[in-house]
Write a sequence for this structure.
């Protein structure tokens, strides 16, 4: 991982729960943020690795394909590049 990805990690901490919106085969399921996806030469992509809870599966999702949940299971108002 490079220092370029650190600001995004602050916005979407590893371990946060998410509601998956797309793709259809996992839509509506809850997942956990594992890490930003890293591609060639350690450069971060615009995708996140999400472990699907209760499934033996990790999916690579764009930010628009999931919503971050707080500890009470409600949506956080934090959007990509925004603040609380």
């Amino acid at each position: 991982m490079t220092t370029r990805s650190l600001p995004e990690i602050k916005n979407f901490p590893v371990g946060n729960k998410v509601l998956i919106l797309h793709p259809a085969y996992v839509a509506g399921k809850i997942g956990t943020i594992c890490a930003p996806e890293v591609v060639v030469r350690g450069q971060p992509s615009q995708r996140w690795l999400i472990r699907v809870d209760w499934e033996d599966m990790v999916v690579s999702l764009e930010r628009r394909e999931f919503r971050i949940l707080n500890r009470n299971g409600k949506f956080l108002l934090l959007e990509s590049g925004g603040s609380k």
About this structure: Confidence is low (pLDDT under 50) at residues 1-10, 78-84. The two ends are 25 Å apart (CA to CA).
